[in-house]
Amino acid sequence: MATASSCFRHDAVRRIARALAIASIALVGLLGAAAPAAAQYPDRPVTLIVPYAPGGATDISARLMARYLTKSLGQSIIVENKAGAGTIIGAQYVAHSPRDGYTLLLSSGTTFTINPAIHKTLSYDPVKDFEPVAVVARTGLILLANPKVPVDDVKSFLAYVKDPAHKDTPYGTFGSGTTANFVGAAFAAAAGIHLTQIPYSGSAPAMTDLISGQIPFSVDTVAAALPQLKAGKVKAIAVSSPHRSVFLPDVPTFAEQGYPQVAMDTWLMAVVPRGTPAQAEAKLEKAFADFTNDPEARKAMLAQGMEPGFEDSKQGQALIAKELPQMRELAQRAHITAD
Length: 339
Prior knowledge:
The chain is of the alpha/beta class.
C-alpha cells in the first residue's frame, strides 16, 4: 500500500511534468507565431514568368522590371520565358506553382479575359487561380493601312469596305483570338460590316505583309506599330484605347470617330498563385508601384511604346471582373473561338 509521503511525491512529479508540458507547448506556440515575422521575404531569387517568346514588348518590359525589382526587393528576379498556346503554357505553369511568392506571371489581357472567353475548357481559372499584384502598363491597339490604300480615317475606311469591289476586305492580326482580333471584330460589329481576319503568327509577319501591300489593313499594338508609323511605311486610321495614345496624339480614337463601342487597350498585369502569403503580395505590390513611379523606369517603358501606370491588386481584380464578361459577350456575338 502506498504511503502518504509517496503519494505526495508522485503528485508533485505529475504536477511538475504537467507544468513542463504546458511550458513546452507555450514555447512552441511562441516560436511558431514569431516565425513568419522573422522570415524575411524574399530570402532567395524570385522567378518572373513571361508567357511570350523573347524579344517582344512583354519580354522586354519584364526584363526592365526585373532590374528594378531586384534593387527594390534585394533579391535577383529571374525572367523565364514559357511561350506557347496563346499564353496558356506560362499561365498554367504559374497557376500550379507553389503559393510562396517566388513565382510570378507577367502577362496581358489575353491570359485573363480573352482565353477564358474563347476556350470552352482551360487549364487554369483567371479568377480562382490567380491573385493580381499590380497592373503596370497599358498600350492601345491601332487600325493601320498600307500608304497606297485611299483611306485616312474611319469614314473613308467604311466607304472603302462597302464598295462592292472590296467585298470581305481582309485585315491582318498577330493571331486569332488575340486583342487585335477582338478589336477588328468589335469594330465590324459596331459598323455593321464584314471583315475577313488574316491571322499571322505574330506582329512581324503581319506588318511585313501590310508594308508590302499583301494586305490593305491590319490591327496591331501601338508599341509594335510605332517604328513603322514614324518611318512612313504604314498609316494610322484609329486607335482603340479610350483616349488618344501619348505616342500618337494626332490619331483620333474609334470613339471620337463615332464608335464608342470600340474602346479596348491591352495591359500588363503581374499576378501570383492565389493563396500566396499576404506579406509577400504586399512587398511585391509596393515594388511594382515603386517601379512605375521611377522616372528612369517610366522613360524606358515609354521608349518601348508602353504607357506605365500603377493599379493595385484590387484595381486589377476589378479590371478582370469588368472585362471578362465583355470579352465573352463579344466572342459569342462575333463567333470567335479557339476550340
